[in-house]
Amino acid sequence: MTANAKNGFLLSNGRWQNHYLKDPISVLVVNLMPTKEVTERQFLESFNNLNQDIEFTFLYLATHHFKNISYSAIAKAYASLDDVESSSFDGLIITGAPVEQLNFHQVDYWEEFRTICDWAKRHTKQSLLECWAALGGLYNDYQLNKQQLSQKLFGIYQATSINEHNRLSHNFHAIKIPQSRHSTPVIDPNNLPDDLEVIATNKQIGPLIYYSPSNHRTYITGHPEYESDTLAKEYYRDLKKRLPIQEPHNYFANVEIGKVNYSWQQSSIQIYQNWLNTFTQQKVGTLV
């Protein structure tokens, strides 16, 4: 089907073409990534492959001090929480953010992030939090803190165990998710908080997808939206800066020529399709 942008830099700069949609699903995206246009395109193109028409509204956090873009530019292209506070959306997505090496309370928009998580319970059917937002959501919702890793978790990781009874894992032969992070939740999968489920896990790095029925919230520790060359760009960027970085796990088919094994695309499509299905096909009050 088709994904449209109601606002955003791609739309305002003429780099995304909208089409006529009838009764699209409305999804609010809190875009915390520094590469705003790239992230907009990643989500739009990913959701273009799904079974429903989608209309994205992109939101910025008014309490954030932007480094790479002027405040007036993003306020013109994006909505703020004040703009949408009285509105309702079918779904909410909060992206990752390059702030995971900070304590949560050191992040300038932490309180606004918490406000949006609380707002989403009343104004959306389901929310989806990715990478840093997933870590922040687990801390906000369950007081599960994070810990720094000794080296960056970087590459493509496949689930070694899947909860096949949950709708979020329907129709999967394999779940592969790009990872690019310096921290991980402090959590015992065998002693989970009440009402928190592990949907998919990798025996090497731990849970990949969590779900909270009471919060109507899915937490994904990686980036399903990443395009084929996203990790390559991060890898060569860090090499150029002489930062400590290892070759991304299970990613390059030939690192010398930069050839990538784009192995997670179908997984990403299915992850997002299953998430949409949780609120477009479920009965009230049920998920499984």
Automatic annotation (TrEMBL):
SUPFAM superfamilies noted in UniProt: Class I glutamine amidotransferase-like
UniProt site (Important for substrate specificity): S180
Top-level taxon of origin: Bacteria
Site description Important for acyl-CoA specificity, residues in chain: E100
Coiled coil: none
Subcellular location: Cytoplasm
Described function: Transfers an acetyl group from acetyl-CoA to L-homoserine, forming acetyl-L-homoserine.
Protein name: Homoserine O-acetyltransferase
Gene name of the record: metAA
